Amino acid sequence: MSFKDDPRLMVIGDRLRSVRNIVPIMSSKGGVGKTLVASLLALVSVENGLRTGLLDLDVTNPTTHIVLGIDPSKVKPIEEKGIIPPSIHGIRFMTIAYYSLENPVPLRGYEIDDVIREILAITQWGGLDILFIDTPPGLSDESLDVLTYFTNPRPLIVSTPSPLSIRSVERLLTLLVEQGINILGVVENMVVRVTGHIRDLCRRYGVKYLGQIPYDPGVDIAIGNIEDLRNTKFYKHLMESFNILRTMLI
Amino acid sequence: MVHEWALAEAIAGYVREYMGEHKILKKLTISLGELQSIDREILDFALKEILKSMGITVGELNYEVEEAVLRCRKCGFEWKLHKKLFSEEVLEAIHFVPEVIHSYYKCPRCGSRDFDIVRGRGLRIKEILVE
Q: Which domain holds residue B105?
C-alpha cells in the first residue's frame, strides 16, 4: 500500500492534535540510556504537574514497561473509539508489549512501519502537555517515521561521552538540522570524566546542551521500582535537565 | 465502541480527501484482511455514521474478506492461516496489531518467525467511485 493510499495516515494528525509537545528521545547509538531517559523524564514530568504520555516506539524490542515495572499481560488499553492508553504512575503509556507480551517481535522494516501506522492511527491520546517517545538506535524506520508522521517533533538527543556515541549523534544531528527539525537539546549520559566534547558538538550545531548525568550503577538495580528509581542520582540529574527543557516547551 | 471506530474514521478521512468537491459517494469497496478480524457490522455502522456527519451521501458500501496468506523468508513455504490455532487472547492481540503474529506463530515447515504476510493483513480501500 502506498503512502497516499493508506487511510490510517489520514487520522494520525487528529489523534495528536491535543498533544502540545512531542519529544522523541533519539540517539543513533545503542546503549546510551534512551529508554531510561524517556521513561524517567515522563515520571519527572508527571511530578511537575504536566499531562504526560509515553510511547514506546522501539517496536521490535520494547522495554519501557520494564523500567516502569508493569506486567503487560495484566494491563490493557481501554477500547473507546480506538484505544486509550492506560495511566501508569500518572503517565498515559502505550507500548506494543500489551499485545506481544514478552515474546520476540522479529519484524522487517516495512512491517515496523505498518505497526507504527497502526498504533498512531488507533491510539486516542486526548489532551497532553508532553508526549515522550522512546526510539531504538539507528536511523531506520522508527526514526524516519518520527520525522514523517509527527507534526513538529522536538527531539531530545542522548549521548554518552564515548567517541562512538558522539560520532553517531553527529550523523543524527546532521540529518535533523538539514530537515529543519526543532531539536530540544542534547543530554550527556553516563559521564565518568568531564570532557566538554558534547558541549562543543552542541555549539557547532546550534543545539542546547541540557546537562550531564554521571554514570550511576544504582539505576539498573532500581529498574522496575518507581520509588527506588526516584531515589537514584540519575533521576535527580534528569530533574535538572527537565527544568531546562521545560522552559523550551510550548 | 471499539477499535473499528478508529479505523472507520481513517477510511472516512480518506474518502473525504478523495472526494474533494463531490458530495455523493457512489461506491466504496473495502478489503478486510482476515488476519485483523475486523468486525464488519461495527465497521459498517461506524463508517455510515461518520460519513453522514461529514455530509457525504453514501451509495453502495461493499466489504470483501481477503484470506490471509503467509510466506516464509527462510524456506519459501507459502501457506494459508488457520486462525483456529490461536487462543482468543492471541487473536485479540493480532486484531489490534497484526504484526504481533510473529510473536506467536512460526513457519509450519522450518519453524522460522521470519515470514511475510503476503496478503490479508488488514484493511484497505479497493475501489472508490464518486459523483
A: 3-130
CATH number of A3-245: 3.40.50.300
Contact between A31 and A187 under an 8 Å Cβ cutoff? The reply is no
The pLDDT tens digits of the residues spanning B13-44 come to 999 999 988 989 999 999 999 999 999 999 99
What are residue A239's phi and psi, to 5 degrees? -60, -40
Residues in chain A: 250
- The identity of residue B6, as a single letter, is A
How does pLDDT run across B71-121, given as a tens digit for each residue? Answer: 999 999 999 988 888 999 999 999 999 999 999 999 999 999 999 999 999
* Domains: count for chain B: 1
Q: A112: nearest CA in chain B?
A: B99
Best of A56, A59, A100, A116 to disrupt the B interface by mutation (most B CBs within 10 Å)? A100
The structural domains of chain A, with segments of one domain joined by +, span: 3-245
With contacts defined as CB-CB under 8 Å, which chain B residues touch A61? none
The C-alpha R_g of chain A, in whole angstroms, comes to 17
The CA distances from residue B80 to A107, A200, B69, in Å, are 19, 57, 5
ipTM: 0.94
Return the CATH number at B48: 3.30.2320.80
For chain B, the three-class secondary structure string (H helix, E strand, C coil) is: CCHHHHHHHHHHHHHHHHHCCCCEEEEEEEEEEHHHCCCHHHHHHHHHHHHHHCCCEEEEEEEEEECCEEEECCCCCEEECCHHHCCHHHHHHHHHCHHHHHHHCCCCCCCCCCEEEEECCCEEEEEEEEC
